[in-house]
Design goal:
The chain has about 350 residues and is α+β, with helices and mostly antiparallel strands. It has 8 helices and 14 strands. The structure holds N-oxalylglycine and nickel (II) ion (NI). N-oxalylglycine (OGA) binds next to strand 5, strand 7, strand 11 and strand 12. Keywords: Iron, Metal-binding, Oxidoreductase. It comes from Cinchona calisaya.
């Protein structure tokens, strides 16, 4: 069977290798939508309401672990063009996409399906993923696709704009946490990764997932969803649907922000369910620390009454522990917790 599902045509029934064991299936249950996702109006952060917006972001990061942002500064045209460029890319001929196919995490621009363990896993997730690095642009753009013809131009501008947006959010978080100016700049947000999920229509969404439940291991994530629903977040033990709002970005603090905030922030579990009728394309942008920078609870966020929860570690150390623990966030974080004295 062709590995990349974006090359399949007209799927009428579930291929057996995508049917999960019964205890892992999402089931037929209709999941309620999350009604009260905190929405941040970023325009207001530049005016008299700045302190209020900062408090909203800090509260959402503590209680919900994610929020959506409107008036984020990236134009609607650019957002739409970006989604359509990726839809065109996934629709390119199989031979063209094959030139990017790789399961090697060290290959900086690659397409693959399900997980990087495709050939070893017991069942497959219902997705193709295309991913590459983006910053600094001039170091990476040569490895990006040349087709569709506007790929490099549109995605180049998009990556620069989204980076500015995420750095603005990080700066508001920094101010809200009382950390020194520039705290998240440079090494802690050095790597920018684009990760695009594409799910074709699925004959039976009750039997499979488009992405496993997980927490994002990076510093911070941004998701730009097309109009087709699928993202779910675990809140108070219940899976809730995140209804796409095409003009908004979803922001999720990653596990490194949870550590730096000394567990003030939550980094919620989320997953993706599939859709019977429509294909879904979601663009994720992740800011990730450089491999060797030291990550630890910020000095301003602990004292004798509230000691640091984690010891210092490097992102390289964290990421290899995270993958060796099967991407289980609680297990991985547990390895870096300080022993109580
Ligand atoms: C991710 C992620 C969700 C989505 O890429 O980490 O959670 O909706 N994506 O594709
Ligand atoms: Ni995620």
């Amino acid at each position: 069977m062709e590995v990349l599902m974006s090359n399949w045509s007209d799927v009428q029934s579930m291929p057996e290798s995508y049917v999960f064991p019964p205890d892992k299936r999402p089931g037929k249950h209709i999941f309620p939508d999350c009604k009260d996702i905190p929405t941040i109006d970023l325009d207001k952060a530049e005016g008299l309401n700045r302190a209020e917006i900062i408090q909203q972001i800090i509260k959402a990061s503590q209680e919900f672990g994610f929020f959506q942002v409107i008036n984020h500064g990236v134009s609607e045209n650019l957002m739409e063009d970006t989604i359509s460029v990726f839809q065109e890319f996934f629709g390119m001929p199989a031979e063209y996409k094959a030139s990017f196919y790789s399961n090697d995490i060290n290959q900086s621009c690659r397409i693959y399906s399900s997980t990087l363990n495709y050939h070893k896993e017991d069942f497959h997730y219902w997705r193709d993923n295309f991913t590459h690095r983006c910053h600094p642009l001039e170091d990476h753009i040569q490895s990006w696709p040349e087709k569709p013809p506007r790929y490099r131009e549109v995605i180049g501008i998009y990556c620069v704009e989204v980076r500015k947006f995420l750095l603005r959010i990080l700066d508001l978080i920094r101010e809200g946490l009382g950390l020194e100016s520039g705290y998240f700049e440079d090494e802690l947000s050095k790597i920018q990764l684009l990760s695009v999920n594409h799910h074709i229509p699925c004959p039976d969404p009750s039997l499979t997932l488009g992405m496993p439940e997980h927490c994002d291991p990076n510093l911070i994530s941004m998701l730009h969803q097309c109009a087709v629903p699928g993202l779910q977040v675990l809140k108070d033990g219940q899976w809730l649907g995140v209804e796409p709002q095409p003009d908004a970005f979803i922001v999720i603090p990653g596990l490194q922000l949870k550590v730096i905030s000394n567990d003030l922030f939550t980094s919620p579990k989320h997953r993706v369910i599939t859709h019977t009728k429509e294909a879904r394309t979601t663009i994720g942008t992740f800011l990730i620390p450089s491999s060797d920078v030291s990550i630890e609870p910020a000095r301003a966020l602990f004292d004798t009454g509230n000691p640091p929860v984690y010891r210092a570690f490097t992102y390289k150390e964290f990421f290899s522990t995270f993958t060796s623990k099967g991407c289980d966030a609680a297990n991985a974080l547990g390895c870096f917790k300080k022993k109580l004295e």
